[in-house]
Amino acid sequence: MSRMFVALALVAVSCSLAIAQESATQPKPVVQRAGEIDFNKARTLLQKRQAGEKLTAEETAYLERAIAARRDSRAIFSKDKVGFQPLTEMTAEDRYQDQDGGLYGGGKNTPPDEHRKAAEAALAKIQPLDAVGKPAIDGRIVFVSISMSNATQEFSMFKKIADRDQRKSPSLTIVDCAQGGQAMAEWVAAGAQPWTVAEGRITNSGVTLDQVQVAWIKLANKGPRGDLAEHGKKLEQDTLAVIQNAKARFPNLRIAYLSSRIYGGYTNGALNPEPYAYESAFPARWLIQRQIKGDAALNYDASRGEVKSPLLLWGPYMWADGVTPRQADKLVYTREDLGPDGTHPSKAGQEKVAKLMLEFFANDELAKPWFAK
Q: Is the pLDDT of residue 42 over 90?
């Protein structure tokens, strides 16, 4: 690294904070932040308190926030593994912060029977449509992405390899609508700029909003803070708004596939490190579980009331614990799979994720009916 980061270790021990600094021979450290926390400032406050100086109520509150934020932000320094189990490998008895395993909960990686049948019914309705959304032999099925920079890098690579894959249906048009810097929170407002950009990309691809029938949404927010209950709830609420906006803009949207982030342990910043990258899977699962339980905010069935959402399914689950191979497919993420910031995928990482996506959509029983010939 060209600049050395301060090695901060903020640990709660007897209601105190221990901070270790690198040797004075090292270059001057840069400010480290987790959300809105400046750890250099926190260190100064700690030193004051340890020296017997009385902190103001505001300073005390700031220091306590720093302790909590550093405890939650466990990947300010690059790690090739963090020791978490992929959600797909956790059982019904396993626990991560009171959450059990399986993409759909209860250790299950496939949807329950009733939801699967509903998905099959939605799949049966996906067919080539003309520009105004009417069935047409020479019509199009449009598949879009909705998310942030990582997603557009991955999905644009996926589009590149999928468009030349012989398994892809000739009626399928893939449009990358994900955009740099536009995480879930930026898509929440119905009139937000990302939606305008997305519409422009769809139009420029020679298709219409009425032909969009499938979406891929990758869940993430910038600079998450706090524990799973805090940042996960916000990500869940933001994504719910995104899903509802998508259905309102794309009236023929039938299915949205949700994915969480890839490994985030190599990052040196607070944009979306571990454990937040790993934990982004749980809000995705919560939303699907809410729909399965009949939440009106995610209703996809006109016979049950106003339709506000497409049917939700898991898309490809992309997280693996760094260099620890996943059991099912041996997926790993090495440092070379991430770019200089450790957060965004390198070209090698983009290709790895794109191939994972292609195999999912080409082979999954609840995806290939519209993707494949």
A: no
Strand pairing report for 212-218 and 255-259: parallel
Helix (H) or strand (E) holding 288: helix 281-292
Q: Are 49 and 42 in contact (CB under 8 A)?
A: no
- Check residue 9 and report its DSSP letter: -
Residue 121 host element (H or E): helix 113-125
Nearest residue to 184 (alpha-carbon basis) of 248, 234, 130: 234
Query: Letter for the amino acid at 53?
Result: E
Place of tokens 């250099």: 40
pLDDT per position as a tens digit, 254-295: 999 999 999 999 998 899 999 999 999 999 999 999 999 999
Which among 54, 59, 38, 46 is positioned nearest to 12, based on CA atoms?
Answer: 46
Q: Say if residues 50 and 14 touch (Cβ distance below 8 Å).
A: no
pTM attached to this predicted model? 0.81
Rounded CA separation 275/33 (Å) = 15
CA torsion, ordered 324, 165, 179, 204, to nearest 10 deg: 180
pLDDT for 37: 66
Contact 344, 152 (CB under 8 A): no
Instruction: Report the C-alpha gap between 334 and 322 in whole angstroms.
Output: 6
Beta bridge partners of residue 143, listed in sequence order: 174, 214
Answer whether 338's CB lies under 8 Å from 273's CB: no
Task: Give the span between the Cα atoms of 234 and 24, in whole angstroms.
Answer: 40
* Angstrom distance (rounded) from CA 82 to CA 76: 12
Average pLDDT over residues 213-239: 97
| Residue 345 tokens, joined | 């995928």
| 3 state DSSP class of 291 | helix
Using alpha carbons only, what angle is made at residue 343 by residues 342 and 347, rounded to the nearest 5 degrees?
Answer: 80
Q: Is 250 left (phi over 0), alpha (psi -120 to 50) or beta?
A: beta
Whole-number pLDDT of residue 51: 72
Closest CA relative to residue 142, chosen from 126, 153, 158, 120? 126
Q: How many residues does the chain have?
A: 373
